[in-house]
């Protein structure tokens, strides 16, 4: 099983790999810099070769890069849209330098416009980015919870984007369990049915990455609030409404294997997370 978590890039790729290894992970996800801004350290300062060497020595692979939140390809504002395209192109280059095959992207929010506008705008932006000389990497559109005007709350919305992309062979999907649950899909009682629907609408071959998260909300709440896996009301961050059994079925399902499973569950405090325990629990190493 390829399983890991989001880790910090503050100490470069080497520090990220070492942090992941400390959790018992064999994959991980990073931002290439702060997700809220465009400030980025030069690649030569990020200890990339040392990180790759550590990963090779410790059987860590299939790492994932997450695009920053400030990229909004659905925006009608010229400056926001231009930034989104230009910065996504730069992030693709950085992700490839890390040795990643996957960059996860929130499709975007159409704000004052409408869904059709947002879908067309995202596809146009992806077409422009993919027309450049970019690395061989998958842009993985993330399944979204459906907050506000964000695009990607259903498989149909994601497929409408994909079918408008000329180089669709570069487009994958990141399946977020919290988001998909919050958007209304019954991954607790009918994950087989959800996978069947995904396959019929998008195709399982596009499923490249999983974000494995519990949810603080009931199915269909459209709120996107992550919970620790299987947490009850004694957890300081709140109880999980998806539950360990459902998440465990997902990570061990025969049709999900071979993809990196990435935890984005809440930190209990500024210095404590449950990544090590959650990874071991999902591997069946502890209860």
Description:
The chain is an alpha/beta fold and 287 residues long. It has nine helices and ten strands. The chain has helices at residues 12-22, 48-57, 78-97, 115-130, 155-162, 177-183, 191-201, 244-252, 275-283; strands at 3-6, 27-30, 64-66, 102-105, 138-142, 171-176, 207-212, 214-215, 226-227, 261-263. α1 (12-22) packs parallel to α2 (48-57).
Which terms summarize this structure?
single chain; 287 residues; alpha/beta; eight-stranded parallel barrel; two-stranded antiparallel sheet; 9 helices; 10 strands; 14% strand; globular
Summarize the structure.
The chain has nine helices and ten strands. It is of the alpha/beta class and 287 residues long. The strands form two sheets. Strands 1-2-3-4-5-6-7-10 form an eight-stranded parallel barrel, surrounded by four helices.
Largest sheet: 8 strands, parallel, barrel
Percent range for helical residues?
Answer: 25-40%
**Mean pLDDT score, rounded?**
97
Distance between the termini: 17 Å
The global form is globular
Strand content: 5-15%
- SSE arrangement, N to C: EHEHEHEHEHEHHEEEHEH
Strand order of the largest sheet: 1-2-3-4-5-6-7-10
Low-confidence runs of at least 5 consecutive residues: none
Helices, by number, come to: 9
- The number of strands is 10
Could you say which structural class the secondary elements and strand pairing correspond to?
Answer: alpha/beta
Estimated radius of gyration: 18 Å
